[in-house]
Structure to design on (241 residues):
């Protein structure tokens, strides 16, 4: 098993490409587990992921839970980024996994498509693997605890930077119009909070924590939305020039 840290947005693709090249000619099977330093494995995490792979999945992704000691900022990030993968939800979207708690078999690494200079890789890489007939499954019992993510202002700055990159990616690669992205940006925080609430509210232990994190959640979501609008505008201007 090889564990790779997915934190640095510009390094993951290069890391996995290097791993692919380094292992050429080696017959040994291996899997690559992707996570971040803010995540801590719970008991049975590895066996739950590996059991899904042993049943024939090429890619498996686990659930996430909020660390009991998590701060308000941690809580806001958790609901903003991982609401679709909260441990204990009654239903999960088929084939959807979190890139920060996932395992990929060797042949999926060797399938290529990992170099993503923009730092956004999960959607494109997983879609490429699906088109190649690879099985992507969710492992609800493979739970990571999320916490200790840093200060709210530092995180807001990071969300702005990531949103800016994603806004440019939406324009350049997905074909979304600049006008649509900019006009929709004021609605993004409300849409994201409504989505997180719909997913988390059935779990009673999260209700008060979600409401308490609303101010921080709104700041982080607004930072992302602003960055997305700026990134799309910059990409649009650059394209005209």
């Amino acid at each position: 098993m090889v564990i790779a840290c997915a934190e640095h947005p510009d390094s993951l693709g290069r890391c996995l490409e290097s791993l692919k090249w380094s292992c050429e000619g080696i017959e040994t099977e291996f899997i690559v587990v992707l996570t971040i330093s803010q995540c801590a494995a719970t008991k049975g995490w590895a066996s739950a992921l590996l059991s899904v792979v042993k049943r024939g999945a090429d890619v498996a992704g686990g659930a996430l839970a909020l660390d009991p000691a998590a701060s308000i900022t941690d809580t806001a990030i958790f609901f903003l980024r991982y609401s679709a993968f909260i441990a204990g939800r009654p239903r999960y979207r088929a084939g959807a996994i979190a890139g920060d708690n996932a395992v990929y078999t060797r042949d999926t690494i060797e399938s290529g498509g990992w170099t993503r200079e923009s730092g956004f890789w999960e959607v494109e890489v997983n879609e490429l693997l699906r088109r190649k007939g690879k099985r992507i499954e969710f492992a609800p019992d493979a739970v990571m605890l999320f916490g200790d993510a840093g200060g709210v202002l530092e995180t807001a700055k990071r969300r702005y930077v990531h949103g800016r990159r994603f806004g440019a990616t939406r324009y350049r690669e997905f074909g979304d119009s600049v006008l649509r992205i900019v006009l929709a940006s004021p609605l993004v925080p409300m849409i994201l909070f409504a989505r997180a609430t719909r997913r988390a509210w059935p779990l009673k232990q999260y209700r008060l924590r979600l409401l308490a994190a609303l101010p921080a959640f709104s700041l982080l979501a607004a930072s992302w939305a602003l960055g997305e609008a700026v990134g799309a505008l910059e990409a649009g201007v650059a394209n005209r020039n």
Remarks:
- The CA atoms of residues 178 and 236 lie 7 Å apart.
- The chain has a mean pLDDT of 85.
- The longest strand covers residues 136-146.
